[in-house]
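Below is how a single chain appears once it has passed through the pipeline. First comes the sequence as given, then the structure the pipeline wrote out for it. We keep one example in the README because the format questions we get most often are answered faster by looking than by reading.
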Amino acid sequence: MRFGFWPGAGNPWAEVLHVSRHAERSGWDRLWFADHFMPPAEQSDETQHESWATLSALAARIPRIQLGHMVSGNTYRHPAVAAKMAAQIDVISGGRFIMGLGAGWQEREHTAYGIPLGTVRERLDRLEEACRVVTDLFRYQKSNFEGAYYQLVDAPLEPKPIQTPLPLMIGGGGERRTLRIVAEYANEWNVWGTPETLAQKGGVLEEHCRAVGRDAAEIQRSACTLLLYTEDAERLGRARGAGRPVLGGSRDEVLRTVQEYVDAGVDELIIPDFTLGANAFERTEQMDRFIEEIAPEFRQ
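Resulting structure:
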């Protein structure tokens, strides 16, 4: 199993760079960054680093691990523009970029910036077209596409990504449409969820893969979960009641839960820094504890 680290986009840039460098030095496998212009409504601090610029900077300053979006909102940028940006970061990084793409969801920032959100169906229709646009641009010298939302006319993309193909990760757990799009286009799939959620939705993904004639084993699977090292049952209960899966408790409890993710077919566990401490020192302590005590038990 791989272990990915996700620095918070609201932390000061110096801290984002510090914990990202620390993740590489201490043995984390991948680095992820959220694509939002504003934090969720429940957060009072409006600080939010722009993700594509941040990942470009990290790609140039961190030399080893893979990095990508968790995930980029398709509603924010024309997919041909996003494909051009992704290819450039892949060049900058020497072939380490993963293009994460999702349908978009956060109504608050769409309203604030005047970006049309559309219905769920419209967003999924757009996402499906966008996947076709980016994969064609990465593959062909010139691309043509006539969709309801996007059109390409002899569109070039040079320089091409170093990776062939540049990995496309689709985020989301919608069983009827999103997982079908994953089956058709994605190299990787990501969703927030417990081991039970990943096992159940993974079965749905396999059904979609059979329907489109694809081997489900070709698609890597990753899960996001909060990490909370504590044996305080009340604190754990509050965290779990907030609506996100929580990897928590004692070392043995954490080990058991990670094994459940492995058994559910998860290839990578992604840990945000949201619950790891109030500053970079506290966060890196918790990062080290996990990567030294837990990760070695699940690496080949």
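The two ends are 8 Å apart (CA to CA).

See the next section for the split statistics.
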